[in-house]
Amino acid sequence: xxxxxxxxxxxxxxxxxxxxxxxxxxxxxxxxxxxxxxxxxxxxxxxxxxxxxxxxxxxxxxxxxxxxxxxxxxxxxxxxxxxxxxxxxxxxxxxxxxxxxxxxxxxxxxxxxxxxxxxxxxxxxxxxxxxxxxxxxxxxxxxxxxxxxxxxxxxxxxxxxxxxxxxxxxxxxxxxxxxxxxxxxxxxxxxxxxxxxxxxxxxxxxxxxxxxxxxxxxxxxxxxxxxxxxxxxxxxxxxxxxxxxxxxxxxxxxxxxxxxxxxxxxxxxxxxxxxx
Length: 276
Hints:
Layout: E1 3-8, H1 19-28, E2 31-36, H2 41-53, E3 57-61, H3 72-87, H4 97-100, E4 111-120, H5 127-143, E5 148-153, H6 156-165, E6 172-174, H7 181-190, E7 193-196, H8 208-214, E8 220-222, H9 244-255, H10 259-274
Parallel strand pairs: 1-2, 2-3, 3-4, 4-5, 5-6, 6-7, 7-8
């Protein structure tokens, strides 16, 4: 069965000793496509380098709520510059009305979303700053016609309010989605995809089965969030995309389907969302 990893961090320092070897083994195991998820300005740059190195790796660019610092305004501006350089061609000599009216010409298929972005009140209560950076990156997504990858933790109502007040043209996904009924229900209404990680396999995961069953077959994704959140039965180890099989197995059980059906549906969904 073919597998699409929708969210991983192979630029993380935990992979420094054996990154290329691990990525090779992952690809040989049947994981055909990988999204390297940005979380900081430097992490986004590193992810872009990985995507350019491997033809089966794609990337998102973004600043997560846990990586906002005092230079966030300049960092968002730099993200804008990187996106402009990678995704558009502003050096058009022919200035006919037809061409000048649409100057955003895609040059790179490697950047597929803005993310991970959002709100996280678990570690930081700088709510106004988090909201500002979240909204500014939604604006970037709309400017470059990209979906977003949302990180939300202990901030359900504020996350939903921002998504309703600042609509995302290309929608996106709730990464490592919390098992919160209201969040999932409203996100689905807004047109977002729901991404399940190893947390759905945890023995203490409340509402996991109910939430998985809530999500239609054309709206779910799978991810590891590597190197974090390794699923049962390898919980506590360094995670990588080969462990997606445990997540697929659990979702198949919850949805009463075969594993290959879950793998294929999630592959189709991720390909549609990220336009790969």
